[in-house]
Amino acid sequence: MDDIKDDTYYILDASAFIGGFEVKNSSLNFTISEISEEVKDLKSKIIFDQTIEDNYLFIEEPSKSSLDELNKIISNSGDTLRFSTPDKKLLALAICFFNKGKSVKVVTDDYSIQNVLKILNIPYRSVLTEGIKEVYNWKKTCQGCRKAYSDIYEDEICEICGSKIFKKRIKLK
Ligand SMILES: [Zn+2]
């Protein structure tokens, strides 16, 4: 009765455990080693350890190539500084499975992570919060004349009008 297998690869962020996401034995659940350090409160920690012991949850390392792919994507979107190492490894693990043709769903409440997943077209769900509805990107823009600059432009001053250049958040969808 209960042995209908869900072939989705669920990738769980720390927020999944803290938010009380129910890890089911009928699905494949993965996380990365660093998450165990982020799950600190006692109740979440007990659930975390139990699911590993029961073989409901597996700890995996993302491949080097998936990390490289991720770094390229987040540097293009200007998001590099927003992510911790565990965030990056979690995203890279999702890319890793996704590239192998697996059906992937990332469980996270982190908007920055969700944003990258949206760019990648990798499905996700949140535990506590509503998912984001917009995808955004950062663009270097002159405060004065509004000229847009590419990320490689290193000067902080606009070459046209001499005003300061700032990073503007732009919506993609
Ligand atoms: Zn300007």
Strand content of the residues, in percent? 15-25%
Over the alpha carbons, how many angstroms does the gyration radius reach?
Answer: 19 Å
Low-confidence stretches: none
The first-to-last residue Cα distance is 42 Å
Average pLDDT works out at: 86
CATH class categorisation of the largest domain: Alpha Beta
Written as H for each helix and E for each strand, in order along the chain, the element string is EHEHHEHHEHEEEE
**CATH-defined fold name of the largest domain:** Rossmann fold
Question: What is the count of structural domains?
Answer: 2
The profile of the biggest β sheet is: 5 strands, parallel
EC number: 3.1.-.-
Protein name: Endoribonuclease Nob1
GO molecular function: hydrolase activity; metal ion binding; RNA endonuclease activity
InterPro entries: NOB1 (IPR039907), Ribonuclease_PIN (IPR033411)
Secondary-structure map:
Elements: E1 9-12, H1 14-18, E2 28-31, H2 35-38, H3 42-53, E3 57-59, H4 64-76, H5 85-99, E4 104-107, H6 111-120, E5 124-125, E6 136-142, E7 148-149, E8 165-171
Parallel strand pairs: 1-2, 1-4, 2-3, 4-5
Antiparallel strand pairs: 6-7, 6-8
The protein binds zinc ion (ZN).
Domain Ribonuclease PIN: 11-95
Organism: Candidatus Methanobinarius endosymbioticus
GO molecular function, one term: metal ion binding
